[in-house]
Structure formats: C-alpha cells, structure tokens
Hints:
By secondary structure, the protein is α+β, with helices and mostly antiparallel strands. It is 40% helix and 12% strand. It has a two-stranded antiparallel sheet with strand order 1-2.
Amino acid sequence: MDEVTSFADPDSEPEIQEALSVLARGRTVITIAHRLHTAMQANQIIVLERGRLADRGQHAHLVKDGRLYVGLWSHHCALPEIPINPSAWDSAL
Length: 93
C-alpha cells in the first residue's frame, strides 16, 4: 500500500497509524513511506537510491550503520515541527 498519511495533517496522523497497525497485525504489508518516521516500526526498511538497494534493515541498525538512511534520518530530525493546529501557531512562530 502507498503510505496513506503522506497528506494527512500531523494532528490526525497518529490515529491513522494506530488503525493501520491494528489492520496489519498478522499480515505481511509492504508500505511505500513518504515520511521517515512512518517506517520506524517496520521489521525491514528498504531504502532505494536510483532504483538500487542502498540500505536494508531495522531503523536502529540503519541509523547506526546505514549508508543513505542515516543521512536521511539526520536531515529529518533537523527539520522543525510546525503544528497544524491553528491555536498552536503563535507559539511555533
């Protein structure tokens, strides 16, 4: 399945992820993730670069020893979080 939260707002994304986790129990699911944190709990993360395998493993292993994933994760962690909830905008700006 193409990861369905790529256009979800951050406030509803955890609820969607929880529902998907319940549906996926006991099944093999292949997900194409657009957000790195979506793949963190996967048994296997496969990172492709120009159609070729760049990294493969679980999140903790890839953050420690990955070739491409470690850079992607570092970049992801450096990005500021901007809340979608309008009442939180003043404190974020």
